[in-house]
Each structure stands twice: as C-alpha cells, then as structure tokens.
C-alpha cells in the first residue's frame, strides 16, 4: 500500500517531513540499527502506513508515534511521543532510548506516553 501512495522514509528538516507533521498530524518514527531517526506519515489517504516502511523492512532499535510541530522560527517542538507499534512491539526501555536520540537531534517532548496502550 505504501508504495502505491509514494511514501518514503523522511528525516527532520525534509520538506515532506514538514508536510507530514502539518496540522498536528501524527507521524510514525523508527530508529534504525545504524541509529538513524526516520519518519513516515501515519496515513497516506485512507491507508495506515506501517513502521516497517520507515525502516525499509529492516529491524529497529525503537519505534512509535509522535506529534511534532514546527515553530515560526523553524524549530521543531515535540508535543507527544509514544511507543505504539504493532509490528515492532517496543518495550519501555526502547522509548527511554528514543527520547535520548530525539534529544541528540534537538527535539524534546512535552508529553511522553510509555504506557504501551495504543
């Protein structure tokens, strides 16, 4: 389904990333085995995009969903992050690790949901 919708993995700062987060839309994120932070929109049309699209089908160190906004001065602000992924099934420690990776990329979250309820 994702290929039919032209969905590709995105990085923060990509113009398509800014489109994906527009209007408070959730994005799905993964941290690949090489430590790369990648995103896909949660939906393309009516189709829900799988986390594995962001990871190119490979294994990941962490995965979840987030709501991120871009401020008028061009900075990103994390509103909410969780570890929701039916494919990868991340545990609490995976989201703890992800918070550190996001922070290294200059992104901090106001709300962290580590409950595992999706």
Helix-strand layout with pairing:
Blueprint: H1 15-21, E1 26-32, E2 37-41, E3 43-44, E4 47-48, H2 51-54, E5 60-70, E6 76-82, H3 92-104, E7 109-113
Parallel strand pairs: 6-7
Antiparallel strand pairs: 1-2, 1-5, 3-4, 5-6
SS element count, helices: 3
**How many E strands?**
7
Estimate the mean pLDDT confidence.
91
Quick one: overall form?
globular
Structural class, by secondary structure, is: alpha+beta
Strand content: 25-35%
Q: Within the largest sheet, what's the order of strands?
A: 2-1-5-6-7
Largest sheet: 5 strands, mixed
Order of helices and strands: HEEEEHEEHE
What is the first-to-last residue Cα distance? Answer: 22 Å
Q: Write down the domain tally.
A: 1
- Estimate the helix proportion, in percent: 10-25%
Which spans of ≥5 residues are poorly predicted at pLDDT below 50? none
Q: Which radius of gyration do the C-alpha atoms yield?
A: 13 Å
């Amino acid at each position: 389904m994702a290929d039919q919708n032209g969905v590709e993995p995105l990085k923060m700062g990509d113009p398509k990333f800014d489109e994906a987060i527009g209007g408070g839309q959730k994005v799905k994120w993964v941290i690949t085995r090489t430590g790369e932070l990648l995103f896909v929109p949660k939906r393309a049309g009516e189709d829900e995009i799988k986390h594995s699209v962001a990871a190119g089908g490979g294994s990941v160190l962490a995965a979840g969903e987030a709501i991120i906004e871009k401020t008028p001065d061009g900075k990103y602000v994390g509103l909410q992050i969780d570890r929701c992924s039916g494919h990868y099934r991340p545990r609490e420690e995976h989201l703890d690790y992800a918070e550190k990776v996001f922070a290294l990329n200059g992104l901090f979250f106001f709300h962290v949901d580590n409950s595992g309820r999706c």
